[in-house]
Design a protein that fits this description.
By secondary structure, this protein is of the alpha/beta class. It is built from 17 helices and 14 strands. Strands 1, 2, 3, 4, 7, 8, 9, 10, 11, 12, 13 and 14 form a twelve-stranded mixed β-sheet that branches. A two-stranded antiparallel sheet has the order 5-6. The chain is globular. The termini are far apart. It is found in: Secreted.
Length: 487
């Protein structure tokens, strides 16, 4: 019998070695203790998922929970993106009246399962998010600080006085130790993105990374993206009055007193210092009455989840009887938050995620145990954004243009002022950008380091209400390219 040509032998040997390498790699990947084999109700997918805990303080037994979805295609070549949600609503009265902004909401429940993650809960099942950001990157969602979501501190005294500095330090330690779990991502292009109070979390964490890299370079930070962020308390909050008036939610008379007699930043400061003045109380009562509890302050054009609003209304006003049926738009499930709460409180889901409840009886979207230092809200972070740009870190600020909580007008003003202070020239003049054959929003860029964009028709949580447009923006951000000028 003739021997096969030598080239064939070499090729067969190479194939055998390749199969062995792949088999070994696959075996080691499946052995990872944090790997999620399958989430209950999940459709079949090609990418891997991981979730679990990283201890950030052994002495006080403090651990942060994460969920990690690798990129759908070729994760080894895609960047790593850390996503941080910020705050939202901290008490029932505030939920219905004002849209309070408060630190302590879940990046897993909001970011991963309601916005830009691979799945969204629907009844007992998970449905595929066709515009998930893991189409473009490896997405890491962190529940921070401890006390948020599944993250916890055994020493519960920690919850009583948490502030921005503590959160930033814990987030830095988390990333350092997460790289020990996933060494293949150390040195990978790294971006940080987030929204809301992440306007504090993201710049402060990035600042610590830049400082740490001066001693030991382990963070290959390539840029940060901030969605409807709190960057400067007075500018951001006081832009609400004009936004509400321009969208017809308050009258001319109310706009006048909301702008002069008691602006929103004064009202919030007085409220949390326990010194609410009669004039501010009257102004806010009038604003609340006109805007209505049945308008979502995070998207003034989006329908509300009637079942949630009615249950909250009943808690405030038991005599209130309404028969309005729940309305859910065809494209957007406005009750997705309720569905997420139900899903993440299932024991089989918690088991699959390697998650546990510590010190609380239920998983909640926003923390019920955390007492965050409110005064941190008044400390501007726009100056930190400026220092990051000076250090060579590109920054994108984007705004869902239907958000009245942190309106686009305040963010745009702050970005323009910062560009002027840094001496950055306009490189992309204010113009429209496109997603498909429709206008996706407006954008302006300064130098190659700072840019601003709106997402047309989007809420405070832009990837939730405008997923296609948000994905286009995200892809351009990762690639360092201007948003599409044509279709």
């Amino acid at each position: 019998m003739r021997a096969p040509p030598s080239g064939w032998v070499a090729l067969a040997m190479a194939a055998s070695v390749l199969r062995l390498c792949l088999s070994t790699a696959e075996g080691s990947q499946h052995a990872h203790p944090d790997m999620v084999s399958h989430l209950p109700g999940q459709p079949q997918v090609s990418f891997r998922q991981f979730s679990g805990y990283v201890t950030v303080d052994e002495r006080k037994e403090r651990a942060l929970f994460y969920y990690f979805a690798e990129a759908e295609v070729d994760p080894l070549s895609k960047p790593l993106v850390l996503w941080l949600n910020g705050g939202k609503l901290n008490n029932l009265k505030a939920v219905l009246a004002n849209g309070w902004h408060w630190p302590g909401c879940s990046s897993v429940g909001v970011g991963a399962f309601s916005e830009n993650g691979p799945f969204r809960p629907s009844g007992q099942m998970l449905v595929r998010n066709e515009y998930s950001w893991n189409k473009e990157a490896n997405m890491l969602y962190l529940e921070s600080p401890a006390g948020v979501g599944f993250s916890y501190s055994v020493d519960e005294s920690y919850y009583g006085a948490v502030d921005d500095k503590m959160t930033a330090r814990d987030n830095l330690v988390f990333l350092q130790r997460w790289f020990l779990k996933f060494p293949q991502y150390k040195g990978r292009d790294l971006f940080i993105a987030g929204e809301s109070y992440a306007g504090h979390y993201v710049p402060q964490l990035a600042e610590l990374m830049v400082q740490f890299n001066r001693r030991e370079r382990i963070f290959n930070l390539k840029g940060i993206a901030l969605g409807n962020p709190v960057l400067e308390f007075a500018t951001d909050f006081n832009s609400r009055a004009e936004f509400l008036w321009s969208h017809g939610l308050i009258s001319d008379a109310t706009y006048k007193i909301f702008s002069s007699a008691c602006n929103y930043s004064r009202y919030v400061s007085e409220y949390y210092r326990g010194s609410l003045s009669p004039i501010c109380s009257r102004v806010m009562s009038q604003v609340t009455r006109e805007t209505s509890r049945f308008v979502d302050k995070y998207d003034v054009t989006l329908d509300v989840c009637i079942s949630s609003v009615l249950s909250q209304s009943k808690a405030l006003s038991p005599q209130l009887l309404l028969t309005t049926e729940q309305q859910v738009t065809e494209r957007i499930d406005v009750c997705v938050e309720d569905e997420t709460v139900n899903y993440l409180n299932r024991k089989d889901v918690q088991s699959a995620l390697h998650a546990r409840l510590s010190g609380v009886s239920r998983w909640t979207v926003c923390s019920s145990v955390l007492e965050y230092d409110f005064l941190n809200l008044e400390v501007p972070t726009i100056s930190i954004v400026g220092s990051l740009i000076r250090a060579g870190i590109p920054v994108l600020v984007y705004s869902g243009d239907q958000d009245s909580v942190i309106p686009l007008t305040g963010s745009r003003t702050l970005v323009q002022q910062l560009a002027h202070e840094l001496g950055l020239k306009t490189t992309v003049p204010y113009r429209v950008w496109f997603e498909g054959k429709q206008v996706g929003g407006w954008t302006q860029a300064y130098g190659n380091m700072l840019s601003f964009a709106t997402i047309r028709g989007a809420s405070h949580e832009a990837p939730f209400s405008q997923p296609e447009r948000s994905l286009v923006l995200f892809k351009s951000f990762l690639g360092g390219r201007p948003l599409p000028e044509t279709f």
